Amino acid sequence: MWNELNEAAEFLRREWNNPKPEIGLILGTGLGPLMEQMQDTQVLPYSAIPHFPRSTVQSHAGELHLGKLGGFTVLGMKGRFHYYEGYSLPEVVFPVRVMGLLGIQHLLVTNAAGGVHPDMEIGEIMMITDQINLLGDSPLSGPNLDQLGPRFPDMHEAYDPIWCAHFRQAAQQLNIRMHEGVYAALKGPALETPAEYKWVRGVGADAVGMSTVPEVLAARHMGICCAGFSAITDLGVPGRIRKVLIQDVIRAAEQAGEAMGQIILSGLQSAQRKA
Question: Cys-Cys crosslink for 112: which of 23, 78, 222, 233, Cβ 3.0 to 4.6 Å?
Answer without folding.
Answer: 233
